[in-house]
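User: For my dataset I need records formatted as: sequence, then structure tokens, nothing else. Please produce one.
Assistant:
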Amino acid sequence: MFFLILGILALIVGFSINTPSLAVSRFARPFKVVGIILILVGLLAASVRQIDAGTVGVQSLFGSVQNRVLESGLNVVNPLVTVTEFDIKTQNYTMSGAHDESGQLGDDAIRVLTADGLEVVIDLTVLYSVIPSESPNIYRSIGSDYSNKVVRPITRTRIRDNAVYYDAVSLYSTKRDEFQSRIYKTIESDLRKRGIMLEQLLIRNINLPASVKTTIESKINAEQEAQKMQFVLQKERQEAERKRVEAQGIADYQKILATGLSDKQLQYEQIKAQRELAASPNTKIVVLGGRGNVPLILNEK
């Protein structure tokens, strides 16, 4: 555009001094030639636009937005159009209670009311990107500040609309994934109508009221104690079963001995034991025929 303006000025000067009565009239022709060359160079430079990687270009001519989208690289365009670049890479918008993390001044976390009337504070990050073919419509109807005009209000509204179906405890624990999936579907549908694709929705933190947190912690501790007691009882039952089986085995063994051994067999076993005692190096004297047929054993000690 600079060369174009400079060339027009050179042409104007050339035509202005193209009067024989002026002493500088001999420079009129060079000014005209230079002006034409500068205009051609300016038109050529203005007709070629470079679009950076990860962006697309939206053309507008005198306020009228054109539907043709300029891809990344060099593009030949009307030298009079204005090109606005749109970022089509993945972008994120965070709504958090942490200072300066959300891009907003102060606390930007989402406060919602659950089904049981409690206030829950949610920290959330939205990952999204502009659909390249929809960038002219976004520029025409929303503008370049679509994150604050569309992404933020739609996300906050849909989260509040869906949180009323869950109570605070289930939202914090068992229903968290279900809640995230539900709000993802509704937000994804709304953003796509606006030309924006929702890539991922990340619920980073759910803060419950202090009283609810205390109740949950007490419940968890009680459940852990109950599980511990069940383990102890199961262990005691197993030990009692082991002792019962052991006692039954001893009783069965004694019963077998009581019913299976005769007097002759006992006498035979007694004789064998006496022989072994007599063969022992520590045994010196074995006296048989004592009281109760029990041998009397004498040694040197």
